[in-house]
Design brief:
By secondary structure, the chain is of the alpha/beta class. The chain folds into two domains: about 140 residues, 3-Layer(aba) Sandwich (Rossmann fold); about 170 residues, L-2-Hydroxyisocaproate Dehydrogenase, Chain A, domain 2, CATH 3.90.110.10. It is built from nine helices and 16 strands. The strands form five sheets. It has a six-stranded parallel beta sheet with strand order 3-2-1-4-5-6, with helices on both faces. The protein has a three-stranded antiparallel beta sheet with strand order 7-10-11. About 45% of the residues are buried.
Length: about 325
Amino acid sequence: MSEINIRKTAIIGCGFVGSASAFALMESGLFSEMVLIDVSKEKAEGEALDISHGLPFAKPMQIYAGDYSDLADANIVIVAAGVNQKPGETRLDLVRKNVGVFRAVMPAIARVNNECIILIVTNPVDILTYAAARLSGFPENRVFGSGTVLDTARLKYLLGEHLGVDSRSVHAFIIGEHGDSEIAAWSSANVSGIPLDGFCEMRGYFNHRASMSAIAEDVKNSAYEIIKKKSATYYGIAMSVRRICEAIVRDEKSILPISSIQHNNHGISDIALSMPAIVGKDGVEATVPIELSEQEERNLKKSADTLKEVIEDIFSNT
């Protein structure tokens, strides 16, 4: 195994999400080397060339198409390989096809590099994060998914718009599945330390329940709405990938709602789903307990049960 280059990343899968993530990471200046891998080498070469031509406007970086042997010294391997989500198809509908893809991808990574961090972006991200940990044999702290980082950003954006404040001052999480059973953790939400209900009233809003319900529903349906209008979502998730990579490369110990395997967190174990976690150079350092109402607890367990049924169905005979 080669010595890890902390400023090298790799992206497996150069579809909309993979290529948008590559562009976002080039713009970030986080890395000095990036290898793109795709089932179509020509597609990876095209994306690498296209992005490389903008380097005179950015920071020096080597971007090229490669194969699995080029992962040997990569610090972060981003997996965006898989079948695209089609209009009218839920994220969980994708699971069987994409687990099949991962059965080939994960051992291929592990053969050349067992020291990297694997960041899963392919949907359904929670199921595939669990599958990646199982199929790669990596320690759980070094295999995690983008989870609800984007859903949480959508929640902050919509709350910021609703309240007329900078979305960066909004502190709230979407937790659970990245998908139809996700939960807005309203009971721990605040704006610059002021509980959400109090801040809403300060801004002249009093019908909290209806507004919160509508915003949570908009967050949950955002991807479906975008897919309906333009066939795929990729810019938002690309910026989420960049944010997660920043936390790792800079060892920020940022708290992000990534998807990781849970161990008796709110009574949930042996399933990957999103809860706030400390993310740094070694991956997931620890999950962060947040206060949940009884209803949120019930909804979280229901979300976990939804995912567990799928996992048991797929892995019970393997």
